[in-house]
Write a structure and sequence with these properties.
There is one protein chain. By secondary structure, the protein is an alpha+beta fold. The protein has six helices and ten strands; from the N terminus they run H-H-H-E-E-E-E-E-E-E-E-H-E-H-E-H. The strands form two sheets. Strands 5-8-9-3-2-1-10 form a seven-stranded antiparallel beta sheet.
C-alpha cells in the first residue's frame, strides 16, 4: 500500500491561514481591551453589580422583611417555660470538691478545704467558725506566724513550686484579730506546699467574710498527692458537715 502524500499548500491556502491568525489576534485584542475598559471604569462595574444584587435580593424578600419589630423594653417573660430555680453555681461550687475539719483546736474552730479538679486546695474558714459568730468585725489578718516565718515572703517557681514553704496539718497559716479582743490562730489542716496567700486581706480583712470566689479565702496550697487521700479521710464531706452543724444547733436549743 502506497503512503499518502501530503498535498502541498497553495498560495491561497497560506493566505487563508494568515488571515485566520490575524482575525484571531484581533479578537484577542478586542477582548483584552474590553476587560481593561471594564476595570478602568469602576463606577459602571459597581453600578452593574448593585443592580444584580438588588435583583437577587428581591427574589428572597418576604412580608416579614417589611415588618417593624417593637422595642424589647420588657423582658420579664423571656424565661417563662425555662426550668430555672433562680441561682447558678459559683466557680468554687462547680470546680471544687468541698471538705471540712471541725473543732481543729477548740470547739467552733472550723476550717474549709476545697479541692480543685487539678488537686490545688483552697483554704478558708468554714461558715460555722467562731470568727463569723455574733457579728464580730475582723480587724487584722497577719501572715507573719512567728518571728522567723512570714507567709508573705513565700516565693515559688516552676510547676513543682520550688522554694515554696512546706506545710503540715498543724502548720499555722495566719492569725486573725477581731473586734471582741480575741486573736485566732488558723491551722492549715493539710500537708503540702504553700502556693500563695490572699494579700488582699492585709488591706481589707473583712473580705474574709465573702465567698471564696469573691476573695474570702486564706491561701492556696499544693497538696502532697501521695498523702492527699489519707488526709481526705480525716475530713468531713459537705453532707456530713451539714449534719454536724444541724446537730450542734439542736444541742444549743435543747
Amino acid at each position: 500500500m502506497e503512503p499518502l502524500l501530503k498535498k502541498p499548500k497553495t498560495t491561497n491556502d497560506q493566505k487563508s491561514e494568515i488571515n485566520d491568525d490575524i482575525d484571531g489576534d484581533v479578537d484577542k485584542c478586542k477582548i483584552k481591551m474590553n476587560v481593561n475598559r471594564a476595570f478602568n471604569n469602576d463606577e459602571k462595574v459597581v453600578d452593574s453589580n448593585d443592580d444584580v444584587k438588588k435583583k437577587e435580593d428581591s427574589i428572597f424578600l418576604t412580608d416579614e422583611d417589611s415588618f417593624v419589630f417593637p422595642p424589647d423594653n420588657d423582658i420579664s417573660d423571656m424565661l417563662e417555660g425555662i426550668d430555672f430555680n433562680g441561682s447558678l453555681q459559683t466557680i468554687t461550687e462547680r470546680y471544687f470538691s468541698t471538705y471540712y475539719k471541725v473543732d481543729v483546736q477548740k470547739p467552733g474552730d472550723d476550717m474549709c478545704i476545697r479541692i480543685h479538679s487539678n488537686r490545688i486546695c483552697l483554704i478558708s474558714l468554714a461558715p460555722s467558725h467562731n470568727i463569723f459568730q455574733n457579728d464580730k468585725k475582723i480587724l487584722k489578718v497577719n501572715y507573719k506566724v512567728s518571728d522567723k516565718l512570714d507567709r508573705m515572703l513565700n516565693k515559688v517557681s516552676g510547676k513543682s513550686k520550688h522554694g515554696a514553704q512546706p506545710l503540715q496539718v498543724n502548720s499555722n497559716i495566719c492569725t486573725i484579730s477581731c473586734s471582741d479582743g480575741q486573736t485566732y490562730t488558723i491551722k492549715c489542716c493539710i500537708i503540702g506546699k504553700l502556693i500563695e496567700v490572699n494579700d488582699v486581706l492585709l488591706e481589707y480583712p473583712e473580705t474574709l467574710k465573702e465567698p471564696p470566689h469573691k476573695g474570702g479565702y486564706l491561701a492556696l496550697v499544693l497538696p502532697n498527692l501521695k498523702l492527699l487521700d489519707k488526709v481526705k479521710d480525716t475530713l468531713l464531706t459537705l453532707e456530713e458537715y451539714k449534719a454536724l452543724i444541724l446537730s450542734r444547733s439542736e444541742v444549743k436549743m435543747s
